[in-house]
Every structure is written in C-alpha cells, then in structure tokens.
Amino acid sequence: MPVSEIQPPWVIDEDILSPSGVPLVVSGAPITPSLKNAMIRNGIMTIRVRTPDEKSYDHKSPIPVGLKATVKQGVQKIMHQTSRGRRISPKLLAEVEGQISILIEALFAGEGHVFSELRSLSNHSEYTYEHSWSVTLFSVVLSRAAWESGVLKRFDYTARLNLGMGAVLHDIGKTFVPPDILDKPGPLDEAEWDVMRLHPKKGFDLLRSYNYLMPMVRAIVAFHHERLDGSGYGLVKGKHLDGENIPMLVRLVSIADAFDAMTSSRPYKRGMLPFEALEVVLDGAGSQFDPDIAPLMGRVVVPFPAGSLLLMKDGSVASVQTPGGLNERSQRPECITVASLSKEVRRPLGDVFTLKDRLDVLLGATCPEGLVERLFKEGDSRMFTRGGDKRISLQAALPLWDELFSKALEKALT
Questions:
Q1: What is the model's pLDDT at position 121?
Q2: Which whole number is the average pLDDT over 2-11?
Q3: What domains are defined for the chain?
Q4: ∠ CA(395), CA(396), CA(401), 5° rounding?
Q5: pTM of structure
C-alpha cells in the first residue's frame, strides 16, 4: 500500500531498508507519522501492511541483504554519467557486473525464487532504477526456469552474466530521451512515441564502443522491444527482427520487461496485479512473446500476492491474506472481505474464503485508491449502481478500510 495513505493502527508486514541498505524498521512495527516521513524521505513509496489482528506473511528471500540497493545505486551512477555525456567508468561497470554475478549465484542456488511482492511506484527517478533491478531479477529467475525445463539448452555462467548485464542496462538509452517525454504525466502522442522508440538504438550506439561488454549484452539493449510477429521496434524504424531472428535471451528479457512495466504504477496509469499481467503475457505467447518461455512466467511469479485488493464480480472487495494461484500446482489464495461497493453482496464483511475461480474477479490493485481508479477507467462502475442511484458508493467496510475507500471514491467522483 502507498506509504502516504497508511494511518495507525496499521502494522508494517515486511522489513524495510533504506536505499543504501540500512535497516529502517522491522516487520511488525506500528505505523507512526515520523516513520512514514522517514520512509518517504528515503524514497520508499509503498510497503506491505496488515491490521494488528491479521497474521503476518513471512517471505524469505535468497537475495543478499543490501544487494538491491547496491545494484540500483550502480545503475543510477551509470545513467548519471551517460546523461552528462561522459563515458561509463570501466571500474563502475566492473562493480555492477560483480554485483550481478552475486545475484545470479544466489538465484541459481537452492530451490529457486518465486516473486510474491506487490509493487506500486509512480515517481520517475525511483521507477527508472527499480525497473532496471526488477527486469534483471525477473530475467535471471525466468532464465533458471527456462534452463531447468530444457528451453535454454546451453546456459553456462558467461551466458547468465551476459543476460544479467543486458537486463540491468536494457533501458540505458532512455537517458537520451528528453525529460518532458520521459516524465510526462499522461499517455505519449505519436510524435513523442517516435522519440521514445529511439531509446534502443541510442543505448546500442552508446555501448557499441565498450568492447569489454559482450555482443549479447548489446543485443538485449538493442532488441528488447522487438516481438516475434514483427510488431515491435528496435534499431531501424520500419525494419524489425522477428521470429527466430530474435536471440533467445533477448526474447526472455522482453517478457520480463513487459511484465514489470504492466505491474508498475506510473503517473498516468495504475499497475496491474500479477495475475492480470500473466494473462496478457500468455495471450501474447506465439505472437508477441516466445511460446516456450511465456508460460514459464507463471512458475516464478505468484499471481495473487499477499496484500492484493480484488474487486469481485458481486461488488465486494477482498484483501489477499495468503498468496497463491489458481492452477493445479498452486496453493489457492486465502482472502478476507474488507468492503462492499454493492448493496447486493452476499458475502459478509470479515468473511474469510478461498479464491477458486478467476471469473469471480473483475480487477485488482495494490490499494483502495488504485482499485477505484481502475474501476472508473477500465471497468463499468454502473454495474454497482441500483435503481435511481447514479453514482457508485461505499456500502460497507471494515473499520480500518472505511476511511481509505471513502477517500478513494470521493477523489474519483470529484
């Protein structure tokens, strides 16, 4: 949930680190004004929370503490150097490569990593570095699934490192995109898209002179927006790679990039929940995305993370308490009804239930404001009005949710 929206007596449900890797607060700490301010000052825009009487979801990550902050700082320094027209320091690239090597080793050890976290970022500076980190994570974990399933036949340490470096640098060309386009708080027009579509070529041209970066790293930067059916974009306007001409590792990173973009919130749109983004990826399998790699995304991402808010078909709103999925290999998500936008909801507030059917869910979000915003933009809010009522309204909500949904609806209706 966005830090700015959280009020006492909510409780933090994860350990929080500052961007430099310093622990700020441990899971279970109550929300206070000073703690909120500290998190916002440190660029922490969203956290997982729970009510005092809800059980905590304990998620252990194999990623070394502080590695995320270190990698993001490295990406920030690289982009800072390129945006000022300076060459990237070889020492800095070597440091980032060393960090990516540690990440790969951690994610290829043990039983593997499954992503079960929610994301809700909107400010550009944080999104840029978070996106680079997330695409790298998704790419490495997805590559392990592809390797173990036999989709990737030869995938030695060098190939893994090339994948990781290509993923972490994939958007470096965006440092050449004007800020008024990159930070625009709304959809781009066609002229602006023409500029944005140049970023793969800009990134490729930048890295072409760095001989110590392997060709596959540059290929990922150049072609991560190409699609199997030729509908993407890359180095030359109007000329596309397609099908088998797109290297397998590029196809893999393109899926990770698209998935992370869909699940990230931006100033002009709310991010999807993982289950929705997975559906888009699967729908595009064979046309936009590699048909062998796309289904593997479902193995490395939890479709319904803890803390997700789901708008159900009957107008009730459920909060996911125990993460899960709906396929035969997954534990089913356990949810609790926290609010109602319809007078005809059959499920009482506080009812705990197991989600069994995807068709029962209209859409999802990470917070009440996001859920209401998506309902008005993407759904049909009229389905929850009855008789002479012309406006959607909050019918009921659990105490800690009442104020959040009331404010969200008030904002949407003004």
A1: 45
A2: 74
A3: 3-50 (no CATH), 67-300 (1.10.3210.10), 309-413 (no CATH)
A4: 125
A5: 0.85
